[in-house]
Amino acid sequence: MADSRGPRLFADLNNVFKRDPNIDEYDILPVLEPTHNRSPFLLQEHKLGVEAWAVKVLMKYVATRLIGWRSQNPLVKFIDPTEVLNLTRALILFNPDNYTAWNVRKELVESGFLNIADDLQFGALVLSKHPKSAETFIHRRWLFQQLLDHCLSSSLDSNGSVAAVPENNADSSISMDLIDVDIVASPENDGLLSMDQSLECSRLFKLHTQLEMRVCARAAERYQCNYHAWSHRIWIIQHCLNCSLQVLLSEMKETEAWNSTHISDHSGFHYRQFLLTELHKRQEKLSLLSISPGQLVHREMAYVCDLIRSYPGHETLWYHRRFLFCFMLNTHPLDQDTKLSCKSSNGFSVYRDQGEEALKRHKTFLIAQELESVNTKQKLESSSKYNHMLLGKYVHWLQTLLTST
Questions:
Q1: How far apart are CA 305 and CA 314, in angstroms?
Q2: E strand or H helix at 178, and its extent?
Q3: Banded pLDDT at 382 (limits 50, 70, 90)
């Protein structure tokens, strides 16, 4: 027998969002049984609290009704789209990994019934309670992909040529001033946007991209080693910001303070490794700013060595140091010269061999130098037993590199 409280709880939840559509955080209150004849939804200063007993009843009702509608059950086949949207909201709030609910919202976006901006706002609310929800991040990437596809098609249509998106420059970023994105879509708005609307949509797209970076930062702050949040941040930089040089440099600077206070969060350091790798691919552009990838890597090495001294006994820092040292070995200018000589004809094989020997000697020198550094400075500063063990593993790894060089 169906619980008669389900429809009332569903109506109460909908009324809460009508009263305050800007709810930015919610949580479950440890109230296992109803103790009064009042609504179990408590709203204050854009924060929503839901009594635990109501979650089970509400979830059973909305899941049954939504699945029944999805399977075209005659009793619930013809539900108003607004109710369908509210059903997905109630279900996702407490079960964000429900594929069916997210897919229904995708269909509502494609039909123009649900605004992309509103769906992004709802996803940010879900992440306030479930910061590691993979399905939520996947859905957000889908939303941004819709924006990007519309951006590119609208940019080409409005400019009348392919010049807006150069084919011969894969690194070129999308000119946001030339993009018109219908972020707040509606069924009635099918015509071409005016120039003022186009500029406004461009501004909104940039604003949503900036807000998305903050959403990623909050999710990473709420859940340690949040791989999904950092991976989503990488995706935004790659697909929405086109790995812009200014963005990469800015991210290196902004995440330094965050990593200094989250020294065991490997996902955060992996993000910095991504930034360094992308910056290395843009050596020519960096040279225009009088910056070399080598300077960035050496600065990062000094940064992580300082963290190891200040916070001994954290394995994440030592693994980051391994990455940096490998990066230094494999991206040295001598390595580039050797690769160029290897492309020469057979007549220059002597020069190629000499280049390879010079590179081998240089790598051996760098490894020996690093071994000397950790065997003197780090060993003296290794205060804890665990940090001494991590130091020993790093030295063993260097010795393995030395023998294989």
A1: 12
A2: none
A3: low
The neighbouring-strand residues paired with 47 are: 25, 44
Q: What is the pLDDT of residue 157?
A: 53
Q: Cα(47)–Cα(41) distance, rounded to whole angstroms?
A: 10
Residue 154 pLDDT grade (very low, low, confident, very high; cuts 50, 70, 90): low
Tokens 């897919």 found at: 103
Report pLDDT digits (tens) over 68-108: 888 876 665 567 899 999 999 999 999 999 999 999 999 99
Q: What torsion do the CA atoms of 183, 187, 188, 192 make, to the nearest 10 degrees?
A: 50
Q: Of 182, 185, 180, which Cα lies nearest the Cα of 202?
A: 180
> HSE of 150 in the Cβ direction (CA atoms, 13 Å)?
21
Helices (H), 227-383: 227-239, 245-260, 266-280, 283-288, 293-310, 315-330, 333-342, 349-373, 379-381
Say if residues 374 and 394 touch (Cβ distance below 8 Å). Answer: yes
Measured CA distances, 266 to 85, 230, 263, 357 (Å): 37, 10, 8, 36
Supply the angle between the helices 227-239 and 245-260 in degrees, to the nearest 10.
160
Read off the pLDDT of each residue in 369-394 and give the average, rounded to a whole number. Answer: 80
Reading across the β-sheet that carries 25-29, which strands appear in turn? 25-29, 47-51, 41-44
